[in-house]
Structures are given as C-alpha cells and as structure tokens.
Amino acid sequence: MSLIKSISGIRGTIGGKAGEGLTPIDVVKFSSAYGAWVIEKTGNPKVVIGRDARLSGDMISRLVAATLQGMGIHVIDLGLSTTPTVEFAVPLEKAGGGIILTASHNPIQWNALKLLNSVGEFISDEEGKSILEKAEKEDFSFADVKKLGKYTRIDDYLDRHIQHVLDLELVDVEAIKARNFKIVVDAVNSTGGIAVPKLLRALGVEHIEEMFCTPDGHFPHNPEPLPENLREISKKLEKGNYDLGIVVDPDVDRLALVNEDGSMFGEEYTLVAVADYVLSKTPGNTVSNLSSTRALRDVTEKRGGKYTAAAVGEVNVVNQMKAVNAVIGGEGNGGIIYPASHYGRDALVGIGLFLTHLAKFGKSISMLRATYPNYYISKNKIELTPEIDVDKILLEIKNKYKKHPINDIDGVKIEFEKEWVHLRKSNTEPIIRIYSESDSEATAEHLAKKIMQDIKEVVSASLI
Fold it and tell me: Which of 220, 237, 335, 394 has a CA that sits 20 to 30 A from residue 278's CA?
C-alpha cells in the first residue's frame, strides 16, 4: 500500500493500515488539517467538493464532507464532477476553498484529495507545507454541536461549466456545427463520460460514438491517456468512419486526440494546436513546463510571442503564466490552461477551442497535425528503492554534463544542440521520470537510454 503526502494534497491506495494507505483515518486527518487552514487563511467556512467516478469516490467524498461539517464548514457537494468544474465553482460559490476527490490518471486502486484555494486554483507550495504540518501535529479542533456545518448538494455545475465553454469568445459553435463532425469518445468510465458527450451535443455534434462513457469507475484500461492505453479507440477510428477521437482522463483535466486514421495526434500537440489557434486570434506569450515539447516555443515565436518554461506542476505553470501575462499555456500531458476561462487545466475548454480550430482549418485532423514541427518525446521512468539517493543522482548527472546548458529549477534539464533531456523525481509516484526530445525518434530514444544507463552507473557506484 502507498500513501504520498505532498504540497499538492494527499494521494494513496485504498486499504491497509493508517499511514500506509489512503484509509478513512488518513482522509479525516488530512481533511481536518485542510479545513483548519481554510478557516485560518480566509475566515470563510465554506468548501466546494466534487469527485471523479472511481470506486472509492463515494466513500471518500462522504468522509471528507462529514469531517468538514464537523469543523463547522458549509460543504457544497457537486457530486460526480470534473477537476476543472470544481475549480470553476469555487469562486462562483464564494467559497474559502475546494477539494477534488480524484487520483487523476492513477489506476483504479488509487484516490486523492487535490486542494484548491479561494479562487479555485491549486494551493501554493507554502500553503501545502502549512497543511501538511497541521496534519502531522493534528493542529485542528472541531465545532460544537450547535455550530456544525451545513451540507448542500448542487447537481448542475457541469451544465454551467459547459455553457461557460460555449460562451467563450474563441469558441465558434456555428463553425463546429457546420463541419458535422463524427467523433468517438473514450472517457475511461469516469465523469468525462457525462461531461464530454454533453459538451459535444451542446457544440452541435450529432454523431458521437461513446466508448467507456458509463461513470461507474470500472476503468477498462490504464486511465492515463497514452498511446499504449488507447488501442481500442484507435482500432475504432482505423475503419475510417469518424473524423477524430477524443480521450480524457478520469478527472477531465487532460485531453488527448486521435486522428481519423487511428494514429495519435500526440498529447504533447494538444496544447500546441490549441495555442496556435489562440495566438492567431490573440497574440501574446505562452508557458509550458520543462518536460513539454519545444514545438510550443516554435509556434509561439512564429506568431510573434515569447515562450517561457516553468517547473513541472500546474501551480508552477500558472504562476509563470501570470508573471509573463501568457494568453495560453499548460502542460505537455494534454493539459490546456486558458486564462480567458480560468487558471486550471481544462479538457472541456480544450475541446471547445480545438474543435473550433479544426472546423476553421477545414481539412482532416491528421493534416492539421502535419502543419506543426515534428518532434518526438521519449518518456521513461525508473522505479525508486529506499537506498537510492535521488539528489545525489541528479547532482552526478548535472556534473557529468556541465559543459551543456542546464536548467535546474526542477530536477535537471540538459540542453543539447537539437535535443534535450529532463530528469526529475515525481511528486506523486516513487519514480524518477526521464523525458528526452529530438526531431528524430531514434535519437530521442537513444538519448533516454544513454541517460538511464548513466543513472544506473551512479546507483551501482553508490551501492559499492
């Protein structure tokens, strides 16, 4: 069993002993610390919650709601929802914060509490540390019987969120409707199965093939929207009866697209394509994280803007976007952050903008993909064991490649002439991620293998 406490929340596998998995005791303890922080920080005892459809979601949701009520906090429960919908609801409800009950792309046995501030954005590093400290010290107290919090259920926020997408200036419903798209949707049997088809119908799409759109939490495949997990939707599209495929993760903050021939558009290129469209209408700056494709920089500079890289993590990207007044940004995992909507990754907003772009382009999705620079990212990881000193590994690799440009704001990113490699410790899993990119797939793979071999040599030397 695993329990990972981080500045962004608490994530773990269901079951086991307290402190070792995400047990009811851990949920209550962490919810209490967060509730105490909200009251202390904002003086506003109101919190919005919502969940994805995973099997443990209802149990976790009821634990969180009851705990917050016990602290005198008024709970607004959106029920089955999406991460961006909860983000959208927090300021509208004038709440002190929000909790999304989702383990995002993690497999079925995982769940998590993702924490928001009073404007519906992820809490900062400093705020996360404060909450972790409160949880560790059990620095919280509960309300007496006459001051318990109220519980309110609101079931129409997905509809409000969808209407918000339709109302965005750069979403052209008539253009989308006129293209008469035929679309396949894979929502991995989570809340995207409710939200995505409903959005598509609102956008005028009449031909929708729903795959895995029953929100029962029985994931039919690994829920991370990577090519190796999307074979079934790919086969459906290979037959040539549809214009594109849309894939979202369980909490609907990541968007992956599949071409009309079953090939992958590439989740890295979701942001590239949407950014290209946004920049064509509203020129400006862009931001993505260090592990994202350089194609975004190419597109941005071509449109006259400036590209900036941020540390990995949505809150870091958002902070950098605000600093440079970016008009669009996000992460290469299919996460679109569009400030004209809100500062959070939002697959629904991404769908509205992308379909408008594709509709106005007037040709196939594969032809649109061919208009962008062709880079290849090799994504690898190394499982960690307790005896491995990650910081030492990163320092050794940094020293070995010190003659090359290095960015160490988040792990170690080494720039070569036409390639880069980025090593970092995951915040949510016990692994080191190794991403490398080149305009040649073979070169990207070779670079990743070379760095992985370097890491193994460092580990072996340290164990001697």
Answer: 237
Q: To which residue do tokens 């440079």 refer? A: 324
Q: Would you state the torsion angle of the CA atoms of residues 210, 253, 99, 158, taken in this order, to the nearest 10 degrees? A: -50
Spacing of C-alpha 29 from chain mean position: 25
Exposure b/e, 301-328, CB count within 10 A at least 16 = b = eebebebbbbbbbbbbbbbbbeebebbb
Helix (H) or strand (E) holding 239: none
Q: In a 3-state reduction of DSSP, which class is residue 362?
A: coil
Helix intervals (H) in 8-124: 24-42, 57-70, 83-92
Say if residue 460 is exposed, middle or buried (CB neighbours under 10 Å; 0-12, 13-18, 19+): exposed
> What's the confidence (pLDDT) of residue 418?
81
pLDDT at residue 457, rounded to an integer? 86
Whole-number Å distance between alpha carbons of 337 and 167: 17
Torsion of CA 12, 189, 273, 100, to 10 degrees: -40
Instruction: Please give the Cα distance from 422 to 406 (Å, whole number).
Output: 10
Give the three-state DSSP class for 290. Answer: coil
Tell me the mean pLDDT per 10 residues along the chain, length 464. Answer: 80 95 97 98 98 98 98 98 98 98 95 97 94 96 98 98 98 98 98 98 98 97 94 96 98 98 96 98 97 94 96 93 98 96 98 98 98 92 78 88 92 90 78 91 93 86 65
Asked about 56 being catalytic, the answer comes back as: no
Task: Return the pLDDT at 228.
Answer: 94
Distance CA 110, CA 143 (A): 31
Phi/psi class of residue 13: alpha, beta or left (left: φ > 0; alpha: ψ in -120 to 50)? Answer: beta
pLDDT at 463 (0 to 100): 62
> Which residues neighbour 95 within 8 Å (Cβ) at sequence distance 6 or greater?
44, 46, 47, 48, 76, 89, 118
Options 31, 56, 61, 104, the catalytic residue = 104
Strand-pair category, 406-407 with 412-415: antiparallel
Output the six-digit token pair for 263: 């090939």
